[in-house]
Amino acid sequence: MAQTLLNDTFLRALLRQPTDYTPIWLMRQAGRYLPEYNATRSRAGSFLGLAKNPDYATEVTLQPLERYPLDAAILFSDILTIPDAMGLGLSFQAGEGPKFAHPVRTEADVARLAVPDIDATLGYVTDAVRAIRRALTDGEGRQRVPLIGFSGSPWTLACYMVEGGGSDDFRTVKSMLYARPDLMERILEVNAQAVAAYLNAQIEAGAQAVMIFDTWGGALADGIYQRFSLAYIARVVAALKREHDGARVPVITFTKGGGLWLDEIANTGVDAVGLDWTVNLGRARERVGDRVALQGNLDPNVLFASPAAIREQARSVLNSYGAHPGHVFNLGHGISQFTPPESVAELVDEVHRHSRALRAGSV
Hints:
CATH architecture: Alpha-Beta Barrel
Shape: globular
Family: Belongs to the uroporphyrinogen decarboxylase family.
Function: Catalyzes the decarboxylation of four acetate groups of uroporphyrinogen-III to yield coproporphyrinogen-III.
EC number: 4.1.1.37
Oligomer: single chain
Subunit structure: Homodimer.
CATH topology: TIM Barrel
Protein name: Uroporphyrinogen decarboxylase
């Protein structure tokens, strides 16, 4: 493992320490908007062929870092690895997204759920983490940027497991939640244990920060969110290794549509809270104070605008937060597959340029 991290700006920002500029990385930064990613995926034969091969996963993880001066790498994988390891039969249909052959719908289905053996079923993920760390490190032990590991949240995983795939209205999973909360709580308890074990395995393999993606938490009603999503995120956070190899391992959580619950999310013990584009960062910073760092929160569709507009909107996000420590720039959700790669170059350059000027007091 690397002895020297050449760029630790991202980790210092997560810990609310002063930085010379605002670090930036992008959710789904290794993805279909990059032609080199599409070429590698074609060689792999399928998305799962790509994600389950540590060599391919390493290759695509590094691709955006070769194009842009990003401040972190994120493991290339998928949030559905855990339910796949539970034997639910994951597949990806062209144009339809993920599907599970064996969705969890009945009391018997729920009773059969168990935390998977991480080493036996998800070793390809930890192998990829180790391979990426090696690839980020030169012959003198100097690592370019930190590596982020991740998982879906217990609730978000449950949505896919019960629905059997994606959903527009979450009718099946919400029906179970309201009609049989005992079954839903059993699913979430198993998922929470699995997510914690999975993230700890990534940390032990070399992930230097971890992120919990609660993509569908915002689909829940107030009160229901706290009981069926946030409570289980808090259980995961409490079970995580927060130090490894003598260094702090920061934890980020992101609930899309979760701005309403910012204060409660900040109280789960995480180091940083990701926000979507509906939240004003300046007001969010005032609400949380120095409890957590904030990550976000440019609307991903800004990247379809002109270079001048992209730069203007990047400055607006940065100005909203101000020259305070504890900000990691990101999109408010994952980057679109249709994003022009040159737009990302404009964004990264402006975030670095303008945030340096903000901290120097020259704007």
